[in-house]
Fold this sequence. Notes:
Blueprint: H1 2-16, E1 21-22, H2 24-36, H3 40-45, E2 47-50, E3 59-62, E4 67-70, H4 79-99, H5 109-117, E5 140-143, E6 150-153, H6 164-171, E7 182-185
Parallel strand pairs: 2-4
Antiparallel strand pairs: 1-2, 3-4, 5-6, 5-7
Helix pairs in contact: 4-5
Amino acid sequence: MRLLKQLEFAFQRSTIHPRAGRDVALETTVREILSALGATRLADSVRVEWNPRLQTCAGRAHFSEKLISLNPRLCEHGVGEIDRTLRHELAHLLAQLRAGRRRILPHGAEWRDACRDLGIGHEARCHDLPFPVKSYAARFVYRCPNCRRNFHRVRQMRRAVACLACCRAHNRGEFDARFRLQLCRGGL
């Protein structure tokens, strides 16, 4: 009898807090929330998964795939944190759906409006959970030929990038090749 109780407890724990893969229960919750907001087209296609590859972020939303990925470590912080993170990521999908093909900022006004509609009106851009934080040394240094300001980057720039301050001051904010950043030091 004791073994049966232990198996029952282990099974309940794994269905409530899965470590990887789709979560049908959370998908049902998301569908109910979206249907109540009138976003039935999104509600029919959204998927929710637990992604053990997420290390530093609590969750991630992929609009093109209609997918919300959650960090399994959220389970250590309770159901309230799971719900808040789920709604935060859902707000990204809802904001992009409402914006259509127009490009929006990840945590801009459209996202904040979606957060209000989802019941998390005072949501912060970033979480404050004790997840490990990775930091990388900036190996590449670029310099603006006009203002001589340095820009430190972890990765090498693959396309033409210009100094925004100089472009704003001298070309009404449009790209100008005269202010293209030049590599000073790289691959240190």
